[in-house]
Amino acid sequence: TSKDNAKVYGTIKVEIKEAALTALSFNQTEIVLRKGDILNAYDHLSWTPVDYYPVDYYPSDLKFISSDIDVVSVDDDGDITAKKGGTATITVYPKSNAELKATVTIKVVENPVTALAFTQADYNLYKDLELSLSDKVLPTPADADIKNITFSSSDPDIADVYGNSVYGRAAGTA
């Protein structure tokens, strides 16, 4: 509009487009959450816009999908909610380009182990014999899920671990 004459004006059409991304990825391949945790996916995403957009560009047209909404849900803002124990995959892509996607595995633990102890401090085992360790573990909290515990030996030449059992290989302490 002219400052001299309000009846003199021109129009221009401006089309606003979302920036095109050239790369999109999660910073991790797997994230472990406890039941009830909420995590924002944007905090774990990296993206690269086309060259003419500013470095601090923040994509606003991303679509988030959970492979199992009973385990984890995800909303339009990227908030991931851990609902029950299990594993699900979160997929994210720009609404304008579904071919450019990123995925992350979310593992939800319902009652994670916070500490481990054994029913006794020392065990004696003879060479070529086996000792089951599963029933000797005392997790904290007491009802924690211990199915994902792995055992290892400080010296496999003396005491070797396979699964949930330790085998005596040679005299010594491990």
**Helix percentage range:** under 10%
Beta strands, count: 14
* Distance between the ends: 86 Å
Main sheet: which strands, in order across?
2-9-8-5
Q: Average the pLDDT over all residues and give the rounded result.
A: 84
Describe the main β-sheet briefly: 4 strands, mixed
Rg of Cα set:
27 Å
Instruction: Tell me the fraction of residues in β-strands, as a range.
Output: 35-45%
Order of helices and strands: EEEEEEEEEEEEEE
The stretches of 5 or more residues where confidence is low (pLDDT under 50) are none
Please report the number of helical segments.
Answer: 0
Structural class of the secondary structure composition? mainly beta
How would the global form be characterised?
elongated
How are the secondary structure elements laid out?
Elements: E1 21-26, E2 30-34, E3 38-40, E4 45-49, E5 62-66, E6 72-74, E7 79-82, E8 86-94, E9 102-109, E10 115-118, E11 130-132, E12 137-140, E13 159-162, E14 165-168
Parallel strand pairs: 2-9
Antiparallel strand pairs: 1-4, 3-7, 5-8, 6-7, 8-9, 10-12, 11-14, 13-14
